[in-house]
Amino acid sequence: MSEQPTEKKAAPAGEKAPPGGLRRVLDEILQGSWLVTALAVVLALFFGAIMIIVSDEEVRGTFSYFFAAPGDALSASWTAVSEAYGALFRGAVWNPESSWNVATAIAPFSETLTEATPLLLGGLAIGLAFRSGLFNIGGQGQLIMGAICATLVGFTVQGPVVVAAVLAVLAGIAGGALYGALVGLLKARTGAHEVIVTIMLNYVAVSFLVWLITTDAVKNHERNEPLSKSVSEAAELPRLLSWLPEGGGSLRLHAGLLIAAAAVFFCWWLLNRSTLGFELRAVGANPTAARTAGMSVGRSQIMAMLISGGLMGIVGATQVLGTANANNALTPSIDAGLGFTAITVALLGRASPVGTVFAAILFGALQAGGRAMQASSGVSIEIVTVIQALIVLFVAAPPLVRGLFRLKGAGGSKAALASKGWNG
Amino acid sequence: MTATVLPPENLAPTGAGVQRGRLYGGIAMIVVGLYGVWAFGLGSRTSGVDTRFVLNLSNATGLTLPDLTFPAGPVALVLAVLAALCGAAKLALPLSGRRNAAVMGVFLLSYVLAFLVWAAAGQSLNLAAVLEATVLAAVPLVLGALAGVMGERSGVINVGIEGQFLLGACTAAFTASLTGSLWAGMAAGCLAGGLFGLLLAVFAQRYLVEQVVLGVVLTMLATGLTGFFYESVMQRDSITYNQALSFPDLEIPLLSKLPLIGPVLFDQNIIVYLAMALIALVHVALFRTRWGLRTRAVGEHPTAADTVGINVIRTRYLNMFAAGLIAGLGGVWLTIGLNISFNKNMAAGQGFIALAAVIFGRWSPVGALWAALLFGFAGGLSTAVQPLQTPVPTSFLTMLPYLATIFAVAGLVGHVRAPAADGQPYTKG
Questions:
Q1: Does residue A62 sit within a domain?
Q2: Which of A327, A403, B45, B171 suits A121 as a labelling partner, its CA being 20 to 30 A distant?
Q3: Chain B contact set for A423 (CB, 8 A)
């Protein structure tokens, strides 16, 4: 064991009890350097490049005579990888070949931000639960419940634009929050582990959704596929860039981004400036100490899951009311795997609201670029999932990254994410 | 890493907690039972008509049973009353352990039968087909749950069973199609699961990554890898890389001629028999052998195990690798066990259900078997009930096992307790 944790160094006398569970996670994460993150991205892209090379038939062909003419294989590999990653960059950030006007120039970045919006809200939700010592895998279920409530309000209310959209988003928040609070309640009252409860509630929500969109009151009778009625136009979130001339109407960026920005500020304020946030962090750091200090651990857990679920509910609302699906309606796959991607965003963003912003933009760029890459060079967008998972895996294990790059361990080489098990 | 002392509030419930569980559980069972009396026994659907249960598969060749035909109303009424009485028993009598489980079993069985009698009133239902669907659906769940049990008993939480399923399924279909050998496919699929398990163990133990997080991230990785491989290789030439293949059914002489269970249990392919053997093997090994004692010691109190000379880390690595082989077999079943070609994300959450089966089955192989059968049954049931046109949507039936799991972990059907060092990496000093 070369990577022994170096825990024994200089613990000032009289300091608090050894931090357990997620506290350690956060300490370590916050001390962790940007360097490790950057290297993790590089490593993940490197593995992605290998996958692109291996999956390309022409390149594989040149490798069959690698020893006769290694140049062929290398140049073919380089071409495949640079084409793919070039397309990814053009789809996510900047396309130098595009015609010169504002709308097309910012189109890639608009896509990136559109993709980043749900990731940011979801990352905040999971991150907030993390800080409170809870692992919310139930994003999918809370998102679905939020989406359901937002849709029901969205096609019922026929108000003026702002009112209808606001009501629908509020309904989404309520749906997600209640579904999340249920988990916190079970945890606080019975000790039921939130991981298992949330996984199960995900399936319950999916079954419920599948049933709901076949009922007469909700079903879209004009279509054959399982689809709910569309929300009224007033309830759709307005597009932010449609005023731009020459193609601004096709930019998908919508008001969800503003909600997400407000949510970032709210989470930052909650965690760093409010009494409730202090309690949440205290409970996350050390529940026993928090209880001794007179805080109600159960109440904090319920509140944490309530807020976390509420944020996930907004994701559900934006999935329906935003530009993610053309019909602005519920489908069985309305969650689009966001519940799980949000976990990786929160981990990469080190469970801090500001870090989550950067993580969400990075992952949003990968997704927007991944679609462009699939369209132009035929590389499956699944590679983006692999790259995202690898980034998080490497970030979670700094000693591995440091070892691979022969870096000296800056500070302890302790766990990035310490374990707590089912009983904790 | 110091083993931090866990705060007491989340550990075993106190006497009051058990009391409360009995109270709530008993009342819930009575309410549900009485609802059954009203809806199934006295409802209009069952009044004055007969229910017919068919007890043979359509292609059964051995001994057959006659169809059961009986008046629906009275039978459903009796069964639902029995279920309500189970609730009263739980409420009134201090039951523990085995007896509690027995009461729960009778409750579930009678209630489900009452439901079936009601659902099939005026029609007929093939119970043998439901049983077969149950067994087929339970195979991957029980294999995944066995893997989970082996890992967690040695102190490593494995949330990545879903990922192992996907890797096993993908590798098995690919290898079997490419080489033309199902056995090679099975070996490759198992190995893929094993390597995944080892990877998880290394990250958990050497890099001390939080294990639930790790399992989720590794599952994402496996989803992405198999999805990418499917889209960029397998899908482009499915005859070479992704055929629907399957092991042939092996009929076990005599046993397969038994009525009802014969063709369901003893006319299946090799993976089903392997699964049955593995349940028995792991159960005996875990509780009756030196390996099992060491595994459990490492999972409960690694420091003590280390003191008496057990290599904690090697035990965990070996267990996670062996467990991964079994989880991989679960993935193998999904493709070349069921004669299905690989598809993106085809495990569809079954790995997470297997994880629930680990906990529902209280970290024991036989418990996991019952849990897997319960989950499998719910799946088989909703398929079988669909054509009967009941007013209950099948989606609600599919929800039931998940709700049952929530009740289980909330302590309403008795408390569950994980191995003490589950999820904690071990470091000396």
A1: no
A2: A327
A3: 6, 10-11, 417-418, 420, 422
Q: Three-state SS string across A352-401, please?
A: CHHHHHHHHHHHHHHHHHHHHHHHHHCCCCHHHHHHHHHHHHHHHCHHHH
Residues 73-132 of A with CB under 8 A from B: none
Establish if A393 touches chain B: CB-CB under 8 angstroms.
yes
Residues A346, A329, A258: CA angle, nearest 5 degrees: 45
Residue A290 lies inside a defined structural domain of this protein = yes
Residue of B152, B162, B200, B208 to mutate, interface with A, max A Cβ within 10 Å: B208
Structural domain containing residue A148? 100-380
Cβ burial of B253 (10 Å; 0-12, 13-18, 19+) is exposed
Domain ranges of chain B: 13-126, 134-373
The total of structural domains in chain A comes to 1
Which residue out of B2, B4, B206, B412 would a mutagenesis test of the A interface target, given it has the greatest number of A Cβ atoms within 10 Å? B4
Q: What is the mean pLDDT of each run of 10 residues along chain B (429 residues)?
A: 36 55 80 87 80 78 78 86 88 76 84 86 84 90 95 92 95 93 94 95 88 91 94 85 86 82 84 94 94 92 90 93 96 92 88 88 89 85 78 80 79 66 79
A-B contacts (CB, under 8 Å): 213
Residue A413 included in any domain: no
Interface contact B393, partner A, CB < 8 A: yes
| Distance in angstroms (rounded) separating the CA atoms of residues A27 and A416 | 9
Q: Is residue A4 part of a domain?
A: no
Per-residue tokens: A346: 């929160």
- Chain B interface, mutation test: which of A190, A291, A338, most B Cβ atoms within 10 Å? A190
Which residues numbered 288-317 in A keep a CB inside 8 Å of some CB on B? 288, 291, 297
Taking the alpha carbons at both ends of chain B, their separation in whole angstroms is: 8
B406 → closest Cβ in A195, A197, A343: A197
Name the residue in chain B with its Cα closest to that of A207. Answer: B395
Ordered DSSP codes for B366-395:
HHHHHHHHHHHHHHHHHHHHGGG--SS-HH
Whole-angstrom Cα distance, residue B161 to residue B148? Answer: 7
